[in-house]
Design brief:
single chain; alpha/beta; Glutaredoxin; five-stranded mixed sheet; two-stranded antiparallel sheet; 29% strand; globular
């Protein structure tokens, strides 16, 4: 079970352009690692576009935003281009990082239960430790919630 104050699990994943991002490479910066179920779906698009719309402000605050899903690099590229997303979308097709961050689990949609990527986020401080864990994220409100916490 991940806890606030502990070291965030290390990762190394490609973004929509194939560039590799690792937690280690962001040492000294505050990072929001947000997990989302699927590219170009209503909730995920809302969440990503809210981060996009506030991106310059987040950048001024010194916050790095990284989205993660199990979609492919190619899928991320299409999603990022379609919605003009300026931040990296990391592809975790083998779900290693998704599992390390406990962002895989039971979900319910229209009465059906299934397993999938949970909408969950982690605020990681400059030393690479978990500062805040956001469970059961609401796509519409999440960017504002993070903005308030980082201020």
């Amino acid at each position: 079970m991940l806890k606030i104050g502990q070291k965030a699990p290390e990762f190394s994943l490609p973004d929509q352009d194939g560039k590799i991002h690792s937690l280690e490479s962001y040492k000294g910066k505050q990072v929001l690692l947000y997990f989302y179920p699927k590219d170009d779906t209503p909730g995920c698009t809302t969440e990503a576009c809210n981060f996009r719309d506030g991106y310059q402000e987040f950048e001024k605050m010194g916050l790095v935003i990284l989205g993660v899903s199990a979609d492919s690099v190619k899928s991320h590229k299409k999603f990022a281009e379609k919605f003009n997303l300026q931040f990296p979308l990391l592809s975790d097709e083998f779900k290693d990082v998704i599992n390390a961050y406990e962002a895989w689990g039971k979900k319910k949609f229209m009465g059906k239960e299934y397993e999938g990527v949970l909408r969950k986020s982690f605020l990681i401080n400059e030393e690479g430790n978990l500062e805040k864990i956001y469970e059961d994220v609401k796509a519409k409100e999440h960017a504002e919630e993070v903005r308030t916490d980082v201020r």
